[in-house]
Amino acid sequence: MKREFALVLETYDNNVAKVELQRSASCDGCTICNSGKPVVLRAFNNINANKGDSVVIEVEELKRGTNFFVYVIPLICLIAGYFIGEYISKLSNINHNLGPIFAFIVFFIYVILGLRKLKKDNKIIANIICKNQVIENFNEQ
Fold first, then answer.
1. Considering the domain 2-60+125-140, what is its CATH architecture?
2. Torsions phi, psi of 84, nearest 5?
3. 58, 126 in Cβ contact below 8 A?
4. Where in the chain is the domain with CATH 2.40.50?
5. Comparing 115 with 36, which gets the higher pLDDT?
6. What is the model's pTM?
C-alpha cells in the first residue's frame, strides 16, 4: 500500500470520510494529478478524523489486470465492431462500409457499461491511518 497525505473534506456516520490527496513528489509522473483537478476519494475513518484534519492515508495499489480493461478490451471492442459491421454490410448488400459505425457502437456500449459498473462499485480504496499530530513521525519512517 502507498502512503499519502490528505485533507479530510467530509465525514460520514459509517466511519467513512471524503479526503482530498495533497500533491507530493510522487505526483510528478501521474497523469491524474497533472490534470489540474484535486484527487478526491473515500477512505475508512477508523481513527475518527474530523473535517479539516490533515491525515495520512494508505491507498491500495491498482491491480495488474486493470490496464488490460482500460487499454486492451476497448481495442478488441473496436476491432470486433468493425468486423461485425463489415459482415452485416456484406449480408445486407449495402454498398457502404458499416464497419466504423459498428465499431463505434460496440465501443460506446463498452464505455457505458463500464461507467455504470464504476458508479455501482464506488468502493473505498483507502484507510486513514493517523492524524496530523503524528505526521512528523511519519516523515521519519
1. Beta Barrel (2.40)
2. -65, -45
3. yes
4. 2-60+125-140
5. 115
6. 0.54
